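Tokens as discussed.
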């Protein structure tokens, strides 16, 4: 039976277009069909780069007998969580409530009205490890539906009530003070892994937002504990198997505590966030390792994730394409054996590379293969660059992981901010050009005539799903970074347009934000709860990202409305600072910017005067938390569009920089050293 996913835009849904399961996309038609047939809904949620999603698809959704039973007794709906984060968020809460944990693939059973009554994650083809087989689960759910409907209905009502009861988050008082941020660092110190870096045990995820908070805290306070945790974590991640030592870029997470064996999918958001963290580490410390990772990761983004239209694809798969009839092979593109190294490099270089990269006969991964680790710098850098190039070229003919080439607005906003800032810091104008090109794409395809964002596009065609809070906030953050780097005031106007939607459509009257707009919340989800979560996941929460963008916009414009909204949103992090800082990193990073002012830096001078460029570079090199920088030519009327540049001119015929914090301004600086000193300390 042909399913309905053949016309989908999502690469994840298209992966299932040839399944014998009669899949439906999420929508009214699917639930109407469930009501007509009086059968429950099977909701399956995943994403294109998810290894266990592929495994379950191969084991169960490609099985003719399983599909026949599923088609006869259920309406099956397939959802790409990256395309519909609102659907994922609501039903993942039911998974976590019922099982104590979450993850993907997500498997939920719903009434025709959309209420969940049973949920889990991966289910195997045969029962094992206390899990029923997927076939057994389907039969049990069908039996309960047909013979114990009252129990099912009661369960659905109970879960629905629990979801609705947890819908509102109290934002609390004002932003966390210095003592609260100190307490967050103390809590993180206690959870830090001194042997391998990072926090907690396996599986271990890159703590990108926490690292940004710790860097900002160190700059503001001089706390060396905070910097030491960042340096150790960044070094261990970059030297381990989590990092692609040949092609650059980070995998999604490590299955072990030592960053040796990753889940091999590479996500745009991880690499954008980590590119920015390593650029900031270099900015603060001059770290050579940080500089190397920045250059290699930027190269990876531009080489492997940039789309023909100028945006950035969502991910590379964990798995290499399978041989026909076999399961996908995780990590096959990236791992090596000693024999494979010798085949490419010869015996002498092969042995040298094996010792350098931790490739052993026993292997660190599966089937005697090893991930590549660079646990020490090579004793011959020239030899390493030659060997690295040979190995990179030699793996190109291997079956490459699939690419999910849909463009997600939020993640592209993160990429814009990272590439623009790193390009300015490292003197790489092509990176800045790529950021501007990506921003142009978002404006052209994702921003509709009402000024509303669409979540995704693919192949130059916009999707239909409304943007969620993180889309508006992260894209606004990217646009504000372009203001800092390029000085073009159009990006400030576009950021204002997005943030006005945030304040009108996403704001919670009690403080903070909802994750969906009040006119774009799926009615079926609204019957359960309107998604709202201030804690970070793999990316900054929309709540904290909105607070950061609002605070930055206020620094450029002096808008009390935007600054007040940012402060109100930061209230929730006063409680989270000491209790759960690992899940509030971006909110705490924004709170650091609040405490630091943030610094507002206006560089004024002719664009073609090298002294202007030097002052601008010094301002961008400042690690002052959340500093908002803009450079403009006083003879260019466009500069007056940015309020921070108005009524400011050159001093004694020389370009000048004006530094203000919290309504207090320093004397204008024409000397780069004086500007650096002003940015290194509090306002006079």
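Sequence:
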């Amino acid at each position: 039976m042909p399913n309905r996913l053949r016309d989908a835009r999502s690469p994840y849904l298209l992966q299932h277009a040839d399944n014998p399961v009669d899949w439906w996309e999420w929508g009214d038609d699917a639930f109407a069909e469930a009501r007509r047939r009086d059968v429950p809904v099977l909701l399956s949620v995943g994403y294109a780069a998810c290894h266990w999603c592929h495994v379950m698809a191969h084991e169960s959704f490609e099985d003719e007998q399983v599909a026949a039973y599923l088609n006869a007794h259920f309406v099956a709906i397939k959802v790409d969580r990256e395309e519909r984060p609102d659907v994922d968020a609501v039903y993942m809460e039911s998974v976590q409530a019922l099982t104590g944990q979450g993850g993907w693939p997500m498997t939920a059973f719903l009434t025709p009205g959309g209420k969940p009554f049973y949920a889990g994650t991966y289910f195997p083809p045969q029962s094992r490890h206390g899990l029923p087989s997927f076939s057994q689960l389907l039969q049990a759910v069908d039996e309960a539906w047909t013979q114990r409907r009252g129990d099912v209905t009661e369960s659905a009502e109970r879960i629905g009530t629990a979801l609705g009861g947890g819908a509102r988050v109290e934002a609390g008082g004002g932003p966390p003070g210095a003592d609260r941020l100190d307490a967050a660092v103390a809590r993180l110190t206690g959870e830090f892994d001194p042997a391998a870096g990072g926090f907690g045990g396996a599986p271990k995820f890159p703590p990108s937002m926490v690292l940004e908070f710790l860097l900002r805290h160190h700059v503001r306070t001089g706390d060396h504990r905070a910097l030491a945790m960042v340096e150790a974590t960044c070094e261990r991640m970059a030297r381990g198997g989590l990092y692609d030592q040949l092609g650059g870029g980070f995998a999604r997470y490590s299955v072990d505590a030592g960053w040796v064996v990753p889940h091999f999918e590479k996500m745009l958001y991880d690499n954008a966030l980590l590119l920015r963290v390593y650029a900031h580490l270099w900015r603060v410390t001059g770290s050579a390792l940080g500089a190397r990772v920045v250059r290699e990761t930027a190269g990876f983004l531009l080489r492997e994730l940039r789309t023909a239209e100028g945006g950035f694809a969502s991910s590379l798969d964990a798995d290499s394409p399978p041989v026909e009839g076999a399961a996908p092979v995780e990590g096959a593109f990236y791992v090596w054996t000693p024999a494979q190294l010798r085949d490419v490099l010869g015996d002498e270089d092969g042995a040298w590379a094996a010792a350098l990269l931790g490739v052993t006969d026993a292997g660190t991964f599966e089937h005697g293969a090893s991930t590549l680790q660079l646990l020490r710098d090579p004793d011959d850098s020239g030899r390493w660059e030659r060997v690295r190039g040979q190995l990179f070229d030699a793996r190109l003919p291997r079956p490459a992981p699939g690419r999910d080439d849909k463009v997600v607005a939020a993640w592209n906003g993160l990429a814009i901010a990272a590439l623009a800032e790193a390009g300015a810091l490292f003197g790489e104008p092509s990176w800045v050009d790529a950021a501007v090109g990506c921003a142009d794409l978002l404006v052209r395809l994702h921003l509709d005539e009402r000024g509303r964002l669409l979540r995704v596009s693919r192949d130059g065609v916009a999707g239909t799903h409304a943007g969620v809070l993180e889309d508006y906030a992260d894209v606004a953050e990217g646009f504000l970074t372009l203001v800092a780097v390029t000085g073009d005031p159009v990006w400030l106007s576009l950021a204002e347009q997005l943030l006005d939607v945030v304040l009108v459509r996403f704001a919670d009257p009690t403080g903070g934000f909802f994750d969906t707009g009040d006119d774009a919340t799926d009615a079926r989800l609204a019957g359960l709860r309107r998604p709202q979560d201030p804690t970070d996941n793999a990316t900054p929460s929309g709540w904290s990202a909105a607070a950061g963008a609002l605070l930055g916009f206020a620094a450029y414009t002096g808008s009390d409305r935007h600054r007040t909204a940012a402060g109100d949103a930061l209230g929730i992090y006063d409680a989270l600072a000491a209790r759960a800082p690992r899940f509030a990193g971006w909110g705490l990073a924004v709170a650091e910017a609040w405490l630091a002012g943030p610094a507002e830096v206006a560089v004024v001078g002719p664009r073609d005067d090298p002294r202007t460029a030097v002052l601008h570079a010094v301002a961008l090199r400042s690690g002052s938390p959340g500093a908002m920088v803009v450079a403009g030519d006083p003879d260019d009327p466009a500069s007056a569009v940015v309020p921070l540049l108005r009524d400011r001119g050159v001093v004694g015929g020389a370009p000048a920089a004006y530094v203000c914090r919290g309504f207090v301004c320093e004397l204008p600086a024409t000397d780069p050293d004086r500007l650096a000193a002003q940015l290194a300390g509090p306002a006079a």
